[in-house]
């Protein structure tokens, strides 16, 4: 028995010695603080959708967050979608030393000096140019030498059917969904709605075409309004008050007996009936569509006529405040920097793909898969030679942008060569793709930094040589940017703007999304 134990222990020891150290130290300049923080104030009582700078979408259902000091939760979010972002943040695509292929990373947490807890799952949608079936969700574990990706969980094969009681804002009722019955919805519409509402034109009440968009997809508030509009009006809800005033202070009859399923069936009927007859395509992503387009025409006219930014802000201030009166619920100001658009044009539609996951805890997350399981990957041998000095501490990275691979190497066994997985230089690699070796060094005795990089096309056996030059941290950042690491996402340079111009920009984007609809409706109504 003792011999068997010793034999097993020896085999385990030998197996562990075949791989390089899993988490070598990183240069101090490579750390997650290099990623810009995006801060958001969330009204916990309403459904919220956050559109992040890098294209990630975060859906937060009503009452999914809990705070200790009221109904507003402040969240901090960081994205690492491009390989350049991952590199500068020191976010390696490795799990306990094994190379991974990433689909994008995200950090979400309560902002500093705030306490927020998650009561219901938050949905994260990370953009990608294509989806890979074998991807999994890894949790980031902060260790002494960086973040290690652990506990892989399979991604859902498809999004679950949403609970009608908590359909997230930004999610239209899908008429094709098996969960909803448009035929039942038609019967309910004729029994309860048709005497006051038409789909396409205003009668006693507003036209029901695009009603979900006008309510900003806030199903919690809209369902509440349908069951008892007077109660929501009395609570001070801004858009319901505006409707009340617009229709001669005549409250909509209450329908307390309609279930969530009933209401969803009605909306599925509206969607189904509108699709073949609609003359105007309404933008699905519009944050708010008013019952008339007067607000759009006013803002759009100003944006096209005024050339001075300060005067534009001053003139638009009163209109912006009036516009906020028409929004559904409290206005949440996005604190991230964006570019001001003054010449509003119809946005071009670009199809996007997303990895969609639900999270129940704050922290780092990574969409990843083991590189050995990826397509077009073969076991290969790759070594790197660097003429380094005794006073240098060097980190060597293998970067493959097409597969979003960023692995850090280490010394091979009994050698001064670097490798990236096994101690003999073996590593799984996609074949025939462009890759980079990037080395960043620090002087052990002074603040001097060193940098070197080279590109190559991957094959089954390669030996790369690299020379390092003394540089500054700014120089390293410029050199990395100069590589123009090919990624499907375009880098956008954004300048900081003040909060007033920021609020105006958000409203301009909402107005921009209304352009096609308003222009079309103006033509139809002539």
From TrEMBL:
<keyword id="KW-0813">Transport</keyword>
<protein>
    <submittedName>
        <fullName>Cytochrome c</fullName>
    </submittedName>
</protein>
<dbReference type="InterPro" id="IPR051811">
    <property type="entry name" value="Cytochrome_c550/c551-like"/>
</dbReference>
<keyword id="KW-0249">Electron transport</keyword>
<feature type="domain" description="Cytochrome c">
    <location>
        <begin position="180"/>
        <end position="274"/>
    </location>
</feature>
<keyword id="KW-0408">Iron</keyword>
<keyword id="KW-0349">Heme</keyword>
<keyword id="KW-0479">Metal-binding</keyword>
<dbReference type="GO" id="GO:0009055">
    <property type="term" value="F:electron transfer activity"/>
</dbReference>
<dbReference type="InterPro" id="IPR009056">
    <property type="entry name" value="Cyt_c-like_dom"/>
</dbReference>
<feature type="signal peptide">
    <location>
        <begin position="1"/>
        <end position="21"/>
    </location>
</feature>
<dbReference type="GO" id="GO:0020037">
    <property type="term" value="F:heme binding"/>
</dbReference>
<keyword id="KW-0732">Signal</keyword>
<dbReference type="InterPro" id="IPR036909">
    <property type="entry name" value="Cyt_c-like_dom_sf"/>
</dbReference>
<dbReference type="GO" id="GO:0046872">
    <property type="term" value="F:metal ion binding"/>
</dbReference>
<dbReference type="Pfam" id="PF00034">
    <property type="entry name" value="Cytochrom_C"/>
</dbReference>
């Amino acid at each position: 028995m003792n011999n068997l134990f010793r034999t097993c222990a020896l085999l385990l020891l030998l197996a562990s010695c075949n791989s390089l150290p899993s988490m070598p130290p990183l240069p101090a300049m490579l750390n997650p603080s290099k990623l810009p923080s995006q801060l958001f104030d969330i009204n916990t009582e309403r459904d919220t959708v956050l559109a992040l700078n890098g294209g990630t979408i975060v859906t937060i259902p009503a009452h999914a967050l809990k705070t200790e000091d009221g109904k507003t939760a402040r969240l901090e979010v960081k994205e690492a979608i491009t390989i350049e972002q991952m590199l500068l943040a020191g976010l390696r695509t490795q799990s306990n030393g094994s190379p991974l292929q990433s689909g994008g990373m995200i950090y979400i947490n309560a902002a500093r000096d705030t306490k927020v807890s998650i009561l219901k799952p938050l949905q994260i949608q990370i953009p990608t140019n294509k989806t890979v079936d074998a991807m999994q969700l890894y949790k980031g574990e902060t260790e002494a030498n960086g973040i290690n990706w652990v506990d892989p969980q399979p991604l859902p094969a498809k999004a679950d059917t949403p609970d009608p009681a908590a359909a997230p804002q930004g999610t239209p009722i899908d008429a094709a969904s098996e969960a909803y019955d448009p035929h039942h919805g038609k019967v309910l519409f004729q029994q309860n709605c048709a005497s006051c509402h038409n789909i396409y034109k205003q009668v006693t009440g507003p036209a029901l075409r695009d009603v979900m968009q006008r309510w900003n997809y806030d199903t919690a508030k809209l369902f509440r309004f349908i069951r008892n509009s007077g109660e929501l009006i009395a609570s001070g809800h801004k858009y319901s008050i505006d409707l009340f005033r617009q229709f001669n202070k005549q409250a909509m009859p209450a329908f307390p007996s309609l279930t969530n399923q009933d209401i969803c069936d009605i909306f599925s009927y509206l969607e189904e009936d509108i699709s073949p007859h609609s003359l105007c395509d309404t933008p699905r992503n519009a944050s708010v569509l008013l019952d008339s387009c007067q607000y759009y025409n006013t803002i759009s006219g100003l944006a096209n006529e005024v050339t001075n930014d300060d005067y534009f802000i001053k003139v638009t201030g009163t209109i912006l405040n009036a516009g906020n009166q028409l929004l559904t619920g409290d206005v949440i100001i996005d604190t991230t920097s964006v570019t001001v658009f003054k010449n509003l044009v119809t946005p071009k539609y670009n199809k996007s793909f997303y990895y969609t996951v639900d999270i129940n805890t704050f922290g780092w997350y990574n969409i990843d898969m083991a590189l050995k399981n990826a397509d077009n990957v073969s076991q290969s041998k790759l070594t790197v030679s660097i003429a380094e000095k005794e006073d240098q501490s060097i980190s060597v990275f293998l970067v493959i942008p097409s597969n979003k691979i960023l692995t850090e190497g280490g010394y091979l066994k009994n050698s001064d060569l670097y490798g990236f997985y096994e101690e003999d230089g073996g590593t799984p690699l996609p074949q025939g793709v462009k890759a980079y070796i990037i080395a960043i060094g620090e002087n052990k005795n002074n603040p001097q930094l060193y940098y070197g990089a080279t590109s190559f096309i991957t094959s089954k056996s390669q030996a790369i040589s690299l020379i390092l030059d003394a540089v500054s941290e700014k120089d390293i950042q410029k050199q990395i940017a100069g590589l123009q690491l090919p990624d499907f996402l375009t880098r956008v340079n954004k300048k900081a703007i003040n909060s007033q111009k920021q609020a105006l920009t958000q409203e301009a984007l909402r107005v921009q999304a209304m352009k096609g609809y308003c222009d079309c409706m103006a033509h139809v109504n002539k």
